[in-house]
Specification:
single chain, 113 residues, mainly beta, 3-stranded antiparallel β-sheet, 0% helix, rod-shaped, binds zinc ion
Length: 113
């Protein structure tokens, strides 16, 4: 158990109230949730084989994929330019065949650098 310390004076004479802490040294109080406010861990995006993908990786198609709204088909093995991971349904944005596209990570594999 680590003793809560006051974020202002760093003393550990702290009262633990049901929903907040109170510092007996300087009187500062702060909510319990403060420590949990840290940014959520970055989302992990994995390719079809479970390799973790990161911005700047190169990926290749593992299956032919017809692009929505066009007659273009991305062929198996087509390599991307360095990818960028984004939020949403299609986790990857990148350029393939000079087209900017969004891809699902499950349709690609990471190409070793
Ligand atoms: Zn204090």
């Amino acid at each position: 158990m680590s003793q809560a310390a006051c974020p202002l004076c760093e003393m550990t004479d702290v009262l633990d109230h049901p929903d907040h802490f109170e510092c007996l040294t300087c009187g500062h109080d702060w909510p319990h949730a403060a420590a949990a406010d840290a940014p959520a861990a970055a989302r992990v995006v994995k390719d079809a084989y479970g390799n973790v993908l990161a911005d700047g990786d190169i990926v290749a198609m593992i299956k032919d994929l017809k692009l929505k709204g066009s007659s273009e088909v991305l062929k198996t093995g087509t390599k991307s330019k360095p990818i960028r991971l984004v939020d949403g349904d299609h986790e990857i944005t990148c350029k393939m065949d000079d087209m900017a596209i969004g891809l699902k990570a499950c349709f690609v594999k990471k190409v070793p650098a």
